[in-house]
Amino acid sequence: MLSQRMKDALNKQILMEAQSSQAYLAMGSWAEIQPGLKGVTKFFFRHSDEERMHMLKLIHFVNERGGFAVIPALEQPVMTFVSLKAAFDQLFKHEVKVSESINDLVEIALSEKDYATHNFLQWFVMEQMEEERLARDCNDKLEMIGDDKSGLYLFDRDIMTMDQE
User: Fold this and answer.
1) pLDDT at site 164
2) Could you give the domains of the chain?
3) Is position 95 annotated in a ligand binding site?
4) pLDDT band at residue 163, thresholds of 50, 70 and 90?
């Protein structure tokens, strides 16, 4: 059984994963109307789906452990960006925030000696390490590219395989 504190914290994480999915969906929609960003568009839409799967993983866990997973109302995400770099900066900041939240969950699980939840959360810890690395790599590449259109073309083409490395 989950403690009330853990149920509340996991439901907060469900909200965060849902907001992540919405934010990346909005980024994908914005990218889709920008010329020449088909790879970036697919990247953001795929990440939106991935965050939704994270949310579902949490929902199932909470419900299986005797809690009740709350399906949250969501705020409108940011819909437009001044540049591709700005969108990826937001992506990185968001992933760091999610990592901090996962770490808070781990701390609660350990303080309550809830080893089943601690074990479950280790997948999220590793996933967030990968997500932060990917976001950092994208930002580093965009920083190198600057305003170079040929570099942006290559970035858009290469982003489809960046998260598979």
Assistant:
1) 53
2) 4-162 (1.20.1260.10)
3) yes
4) low
